[in-house]
Amino acid sequence: MGLSKIYETYELFIGGGDGVGALFVLEWFVVMILFVVLLYKFTKRHSQYYNDEQGFSFATGLAFVVTITMLTGVIVGVMEYIFISIVGYESFVEGYLSLVGYYMNLISESGLELSEDMVNQFVALQEAVRKSSAPSMLDTLFAALYNYSLIGGVLGLIIAALVRRGAVKQINQQ
Q1: Per-residue confidence (pLDDT) for residue 173, from 0 to 100
Q2: Of 10, 142, 4, 2, which Cα lies nearest the Cα of 84?
Q3: SS3 call for 60
Q4: Residue 41 to residues 6, 35, 36, 46, 120: CA-CA distances in angstroms?
Q5: What distance in Å separates the CA atoms of residue 13 and residue 80, rounded to the nearest whole number?
Q6: Percent of the chain at pLDDT above 90?
Q7: How many CB atoms lie within 10 A of CB 124?
Q8: Contact, 124 vs 116, CB < 8 A?
Q9: How far apart (Å, rounded) are the C-alpha atoms in residues 124 and 147?
Q10: Cα–Cα distance measured from residue 1 to residue 72, given in angstroms and rounded to the nearest whole number
Q11: Which of 13, 86, 90, 166 is most buried, taking the most CB atoms under 10 A from its CB?
């Protein structure tokens, strides 16, 4: 997930991102499907550590998936911070601003008229991005942790429902 995030960030904001929209969508779907499948397999394997008397509850499965996705968020956040530090925050900002300009031009070339309020919002966005300071490592880490916690919560609800199994009660016969 970390390498995927770095690739997407580089191509979209620094590499220009021209003509790679379909590639982004394909790459994102492949990585997300792989992520979900691996989460399911890891949760299924983790559930096998619980014997029949214990069972594997929905809450245990949900907690396991959220924990794994939060660890993924930490890894992604650290990798993203290191990547932006290496490339330089200024390059990242310039790439973002050129992307916003590209979309403004695309909208105007398509024949759609932008209202004055919309143009003012684009200009305000560009100014806010130019004036922003580089995020700290903790900002980047907490943003990734928050995003992956939400992803883990949603995926955890589904995966935990599929993997859960109740405890089997043994009947003592005398």
Answers
A1: 59
A2: 10
A3: helix
A4: 25, 10, 9, 8, 49
A5: 13
A6: 33
A7: 10
A8: no
A9: 26
A10: 7
A11: 13
Rounded distance between C-alpha atoms, residue 50 and residue 53, angstroms: 8
| Cα–Cα distances in angstroms (integers) from residue 1 to residues 4, 20, 36, 74, 106, in the given order | 5, 19, 11, 11, 30
User: Residue written as tokens 């214990």?
Assistant: 54
Which CA distances in Å does 2 have to 93, 143, 150?
A: 20, 14, 17
Question: What pTM value is reported for the model?
Answer: 0.74
Does residue 65 contact residue 159 with C-beta atoms inside 8 Å? yes
Please write the tens of the pLDDT for every residue from 97-156.
887 777 777 777 887 777 788 878 888 888 888 888 888 889 989 999 999 999 999 999
**Size (the chain), residues:** 174
Collapsed DSSP state (helix, strand, coil) of residue 165: strand
The angle subtended at Cα 103 by Cα 99 and Cα 109, nearest 5°, is 140
Rounded CA gap, 86 and 72, in Å?
A: 21
Helix (H, G, I), strand (E, B) or coil at 90: helix
- Does residue 12 surpass a pLDDT of 80? no
Is 24 a residue whose pLDDT tops 70? no
The position carrying tokens 């245990």 is 60
